[in-house]
Description:
Blueprint: E1 14-16, E2 19-21, H1 31-34, E3 39-41, H2 44-57, E4 69-72, H3 81-93, E5 99-104, H4 111-120, E6 122-130, H5 134-139, H6 154-173, E7 176-181, H7 190-203, E8 207-208
Parallel strand pairs: 1-4, 4-5, 5-6, 6-7, 7-8
Antiparallel strand pairs: 2-3
Helix pairs in contact: 2-3, 3-4
Amino acid sequence: SPYLSSIFPIEEQIGILSSRGCVFKCVYCNFSAMSRWTIRYHSVERLISELKIIDKNFLRQMKRIEYRIVNFWDDIFTLDKERAKQICRRIIEEKINLEFRAQTKGGMVDRELLYLMRKAGFHSIDFGLESVSPRVLNIIKKIRQPNITENSLKPEKKYIEKVKEDVRLAKKIGLEPEINTIMGLPGSTIKDDLKTLNFVKRLGIKKHY
């Protein structure tokens, strides 16, 4: 850990990893392939120790607001929802005074988790959507291994609705939802991409990547 070794970046955003790797097999992403589609977790104790050091020795000295947000660089911070809740509870208990940002995937949050994240200091949560075309989501293996028969697209359609639901819930609780999309994915058309952009616009997303 650079933070536990007293090594700090000078002029860049602060980030931290509570886990490495990803279990999904999205074709556009190399992180899960590098980790052989597994995930390894740092202990909650180590993570809390790092955050305490960041809070005490570094961020309180920073004047620029954008540098005071600590990014959780986990591919899916909430993959293990109960662990994410445990981390949030510890942040609250230890009175760590930081703001956080994390990224996840639709269907990987619930009301209790989002509430705890907000109470722990999370400012925003980034949902990886990529596309609102069920066919494209199937091709890129966003949800599962591809099977392009029309009847098999129900999981992809359900995922799109879940992202919409999660975004609305995050807003209601006070988190700022963000959305990631990718234009020009395999099998995607201009019509598909425009539909995705309009979907994001209708959700009222302020930050879209």
